[in-house]
Amino acid sequence: MTRRYSALSLLREGVNGQRGWEPAWRSPEPKARYDAIVIGGGGHGLATAYYLAKNHGITNVALVERGWIGGGNTGRNTTVIRSNYFFPASAAFYDFSVELYEGLSKELNYNIMFSQRGMWTLAHDRHGLEMARRSANAMLLNGVDAEFHDGPSVRTRIPGLNPDPRFPILGGIKQPRGGTARHDAVAWGYARAASALGVDIIQNCEVLDFVIEGGRVRGVETSLGAMRSDCVGMAVAGHSSVIAAKAGLRLPVSSYALQAFVSEPVKPCLDTVILSPATGTYLSQSDKGELVIGAGLDLYLSYAQRGNLPWMERAAAGVVELFPQFSRLRFLRQWAGIVDVVHDSTPILGLTAVDGLFINCGWGTGGFKSIPAGGWCLAHAMATGQSHPLARAFDIERFETGALIDEASASGIAH
Amino acid sequence: MMLLIECPYCGPRAEIEFRYGGESHIQRPGPHTEVSDAEWADYLYLRKNTKGEHRERWLHASGCRRWFNVARETVTHEVLAVYKMTDPCPLPDDTGAPVGDPATAPGSSVGGAS
After folding, report:
1. Does A317 touch chain B (CB under 8 A)?
2. Distance from first CA to last CA of chain B, Å, rounded?
3. C-alpha distances in Å from residue A324, one per residue of A32, A317, A328, B13
């Protein structure tokens, strides 16, 4: 059987008629007792399971997923990775995530196709320009790579921008280490690596309730039966309130639909990622040639995983404003993910009021880029019973103490 | 793909005319000298975020600019009921405010509830 992926194994299997490949992860029957249970088979949950085994040696772990792994927001995002945040706590956390992404293909022996093609945030008016300078300075002070560019410099580096736009392009910030990765590969890579270390990945298994005895968690009731464990972590994004309510917890989370689209595939024409807050545009080109377009939130509660038409129109209008030539492209697919938005656009990561229950949520529209660090820190909390130093400021208690980290305003990132 | 909302003052209009205002029937705790940090955090930040029937406030921003309540299914987006800020929800009470909630009754002296 071929376990390790390499050029040599490709060649060997090519000669052998591709008969030696084994499934990337096991699908075992659930056991009655685990040392730790992770709820949610998206990127964060899979990364948590992997780091529990890898960093902490806890290998008797179940990962339970209601649908299939990577079928939620991990498969529904615009695949952008960046760390252009304002406050030191956020910058340190997200930059750690970018660092982990940089080594992830090698670490997991799975090509996640991380392409550091740079990430641009454009400024279209004087105030936007001031915000861009402030943001670039903050990033540099936080030790994150950032370049400020004036209008002509932006145009030199992004060919094809509208030469006569209604909203003039006065400047922009570039984070050179930002980029895109293959989202499914992140889920599959973590799943394969976690499974190889002994983690049981159990799909089509819905968590129905928690087993709570004497104020502490003792396991979960699932559609496939009960599983006991004194350590349970949840990473369920848009369904965080629903799952937390089963443990009697209320969360400062609102679930909204976030839409994205791809166009029909075309030849390479955009070699970077562009965010233009003023025109509501979030744009990149996939390796397959599709333009990947992100919209804003449909701003009313939704668990529907489909977006509304007005935002689709606004997103398309923004793209055409920046690149009129793209008006001739047709939409190929449209979808939405249910994202978990909190008031300060900063995640909730660590302990809860229920002993033994740990939480990872509140990523809003920025969950994909935080997968490695989110999993790393949730695994740390589950293994040690304490928040990871990088995530200490992300404790849920901040809503009571008032120590919010308002990235929604500070970094001007609509997430 | 798009909501049709019946404004109690203007009739049915497209969703782009409206602005969503979050969960309805949240009562501000008081008197403020007796409110703990936990109660205040609950009031400010913690939400039901219901999957299913959700009672919420909407503003007819591009119309009469008046606020009103909507009971809506958050999975299907079906609008189940529309009722005025001062009225109790006409639906049976399972998730929202009790009928005759003092915070939403006409002439209520409790501030900030609607």
Report:
1. no
2. 29
3. 59, 9, 8, 32
